[in-house]
Structure formats: structure tokens, C-alpha cells
Amino acid sequence: xxxxxxxxxxxxxxxxxxxxxxxxxxAYAALSQSPSSFIVVxxxxxxxxxxxxxxxxxxxxxxxxxxxADQWPGLYRKSQFAAANGFTFIPSEQxxxxxxxxxxxxxxxxxFTVFRGSGxxxxxxxxxxxxxxxxxxxGYPLTWSYVCAARPLPAxxxxxxxxxxxxxxxxxxxxxxxxxxxxPRFEVWQSRIGAVDTATLFAPAFLDLxxxxxxxxxxxxxxxxxxxxxxxxxxxxxxxxxxxxxLDAIDTGVVTPRS
Length: 259
Hints:
Number of domains: 2
Order of helices and strands: HHEEEEEEEHHEEH
Low-confidence stretches: 1-9, 66-73
Strand content: 25-35%
Structural class: alpha+beta
Radius of gyration: 27 Å
Helix content: 40-55%
Shape: elongated
């Protein structure tokens, strides 16, 4: 349950609870003003409805409280993992300040379940959600997961994405040039003129990993970003193993390109 749905459930339970209390108060006022049979019937109905509303409201309130409490063990485990491995755990962050192309898309940007390192070779990984607006005033949310590693890279920017990925069309590529990739599995954009030979930028094993897992890689401002077009549940061993595999692949598979 997200923080929004928890707040909605809590508000719903409070409304029902208050409605029950108001019904009981009206019943008491009606019975105290007139003893007529019609008023008595209305009063009894309000009493029954009020009691039912109060019970239902208490049940909803308890359920909402339990749902919120269920989140704490997970947050605690993530915080403990982060502290033990030199990360800062950030449950949620509005307007994340990262230069990657994914972080420039849509409105209401928010990163969540973020593990952030520090130092010259800092590593960060987490999830990123935003609202994508199409025709009309409303939008719909999309979520990427990302891994970011600081590495000594030249000034020019390179984006390599698997062919046929639908979400690649959301990128703002107006300042980049689309060029032949040298590998039929990928599309490449970069910020300078000249062909890109993916073999001089990335080791073959790294390219194989990107193709198999449908990952996009970006070299940008001395950082390597690897994006996946879905969220990751970082409470699972599988997700952490995927992150470790990507970081190992970055260490061994990203060849420092010539400026």
C-alpha cells in the first residue's frame, strides 16, 4: 500500500466514524425532543445506523493502521542494509536532481526506494516515477528503475537503447544525434558528430547483458546510468542480485571512450 492509498484509507475510515457519531447525536436529539412514535422510529433507525457506522469506521481505521505498520519492517530492513553497505536510504524524494535523460521526462517526478552512496565512485540505485501527459489534462504514471555509477568519462553524451523499446520514444533527444550503432540490437544517440562503434565503448559481455535484460545505458556527466522500464522491488534478493550484476558489468564492461 502506497502512502497515498494509506492516507485515502485513513480518511475514509475517519469519515465513516464521524458519520456514525453524528447519526447517534441526531438520534439522541430527536428522542429527547419528542416521544411520538414516528420520531421514535427515526431515532431507533439513527441509533442502529450510527452504531453500524461507528463499528465499520473502527474496522477501517484498524485496517489502515495495520497496513501502515506493515511498511515499517520493510523500511527498517532497507535502512539497515543501506547502513551496512555504506549507502543512505531515501524512502521518497521529490524532484530528484540527476542529469539522466529519464529524469527529464513528464511531470510530478519522484524517486523512491533510493540507495545513495557517496565519494568519488558513488553508486545510486532506486525507482523513478513521473506522470506522462498525452492528449488532455490528465496523465498516467510510468516508473523506471535505475542504477547510476560515477565513472571518469569524457564530456560527450551517449545513449544506447535496445531496438523496439516503446518507452524510448518518450526521451527528449532534440539535442542529440542518432547515429549507426554498429550493433543491430541497439539504437545510439550522442551529442557530438561522428559514428559510434559500440565495441569501443562497451565490452561485448556488457552489450549482451543490455540486450538480454532490455536495459538502456547512458553516459552523461561522468556518470553511467542503466535504466530498466519497470520498477524493482528492492526488498527481494533477485532485485539486489540484478543491481550487483549491473554494477559488476559497469566496472568491467564500460570502456572509457576517447574524447
